[in-house]
Amino acid sequence: MTVLILGLMLFLGCHSVRIFADDWRAGQIRRLGPLGWKAVYSVLSLAGLAMVVWGYGAARVDSVPLWMPPIATRHIAALLMLLSFVLLTAAYVPGSRLKAKVRHPMVLGVKVWALAHLLANGRVADVVLFGSFLLWAVLSYRAARQRDRAAGNRPLPLHSGRDVITAFVGIFAWIIFTLWLHGPLIGVRPFG
Fold first, then answer.
1. Taking the alpha carbons of 24, 47, 16, 155 in that order, is the dihedral positive or negative?
2. How far apart are CA 124 and CA 18, in angstroms?
């Protein structure tokens, strides 16, 4: 569990700089240059992510159950994950109405992902991992919306065809990951 917690601190700490220390971040970008900042940020984030993956894999083997989620929560989680995949896709499709409406679909997608997994899992390691990501996503989304309001950011012009692309790619990715990749990569088959 220690490696998981340290990994979360490193990974989410890197991703929380804009939430808690945006001025410090701007100073580091000026000092290191944009590429230097991205290099340091990327190395630390990847190290943290590797620790999270390894730490969670090790922690969930001996993790203490807090509750036994009902079977129905697996189905609710699957539906929430479909929404999460569409939101994650929207982050990369410029000009969609969905992206304009939620403004930060990647962070909202992480929030939905974490909530879905908290519903379907009840061990201590699950609560630590997914609860940490949910808390981070709530704070990050709030901070991003505050930055938008302060900067007067407005959504770009909308293209309805991009919503169709977003939905199609998100649904397709969800199907591929749920049916064929989640089991081999994560060790759990969502649909048995």
1. positive
2. 28
Give ∠ CA 189-191-192 in degrees, rounded to 5. Answer: 65
Contact between 104 and 90 under an 8 Å Cβ cutoff? The reply is no
Tokens read off for 103? 């403004």
Taking each helix axis as running N to C, give the angle between helix 160-176 and helix 72-90, from 0 to 180 degrees, rounded to the nearest 10.
130
Q: In this predicted model, what pLDDT tens digit does every residue of 82-138 receive, in sequence order?
A: 999 999 999 999 888 888 889 999 999 999 999 999 999 999 999 999 999 999 999
List all residues 6 or more positions away from 187 whose beta carbon is below 8 Å from its beta carbon: 57
Whole-structure pTM value: 0.92
- Is the separation of the CB atoms in 49 and 11 below 8 Å? yes
Q: Which amino acid is it at 19?
A: I
**Residue 134 near residue 143, CB atoms below 8 Å:** no
Pairwise CA distance, residues 2 & 4, whole Å: 5
Cα–Cα distance, 95 to 156 (Å, whole number): 6
CB 86 within 8 A of CB 167: yes
pLDDT tens by residue, 32-51: 999 999 999 999 999 999 99
The total number of residues shown for the chain amounts to: 192
